[in-house]
Amino acid sequence: MKRGYFYSRKLHSLLGVIPLGFFLITHMVSNFSAFEGGKESFQDKVALINGLPLVFFLELFGIWLPLLYHGVYGLYIAYTSRNNVGNYNYGRNVAFLLQRITGVITFIFVTWHVYETRVQIALGNLRHEDLGTYMNGIFANPFMLAFYVVGAVAASYHFANGLWAFFVSWGVTVGPRAQAVSAKICMGLFVIMSVLFVLAIVGMRKEEFEAASALLETAKSVIG
Fold first, then answer.
1. Cβ pair 15, 182 in contact under 8 A
2. Which helix (H) or strand (E) holds 121?
3. How far apart are CA 86 and CA 164, in angstroms?
4. 0.70 exceeded by the pTM?
5. Which of 3, 46, 186, 218 has CB 3.0 to 4.6 Å from 160, enough for a Cys bridge?
6. How far apart are CA 200 and CA 207, in angstroms?
């Protein structure tokens, strides 16, 4: 049982960095193009990603199945972990607690986001080229805007702090000094990712996305 638990934790840690970390970063970069280059740039990035060969299988085995395992097993870890931050209120204990909290938030956020985007595309209710317009409509709702900002920041922290833990558990950073340096780098990564994700949301709220959203709603009303 202990050996199985050890390997399960190792696999959970590994999948959180490879491939899910890579997916999160590429998702951040493609979304940031909405802020940096506008609607056309964002659509180009979406078209590039969805034009990859065997993209369905790449997503299935490189994203969705690893995400399912990492998310469900992560919820189990969060449920069974004993948080002693009330007794030992120091940095790593606080980070340990925040890792569990942001893990739950991230799981809920990603599940909802996948349902709103990939599932709707699979059902034929949404086209890839309308994603920017669609997200603009979502961000027009103050509650959903706050939900996405909190979810993006939580996902950024969960990945960055999880990367620190990955380096420790896999023997990359050995000793207090190496771990302290790694902590600063990972927290810097958390700040950068959070800023870029929030700017991506700001980008999708630009007037060019809003105008496209209005045209889409008008077309739907005419057709309907």
1. no
2. helix 120-122
3. 23
4. yes
5. 186
6. 14
Lookup result for tokens 């997200």: 135
The model's pLDDT over 140-167, given as tens digits with 9 standing for 90+, comes to 999 999 999 999 999 999 999 999 999 9
Helix and strand counts by DSSP (H, E) for the chain: 11, 0
- Per-residue tokens: 79: 């449920």
> How confident is the model over 63-92, as a mean pLDDT?
78
> Residue 1 has what pLDDT?
45
| C-alpha–C-alpha distance, residues 44 and 174, integer Å | 43
Pairwise CA distance, residues 69 & 71, whole Å? 6
Contact 158, 103 (CB under 8 A): yes
Give the HSE-up count for residue 216: Cα atoms under 13 Å, Cβ half-sphere. Answer: 18
Residues in the chain: 224
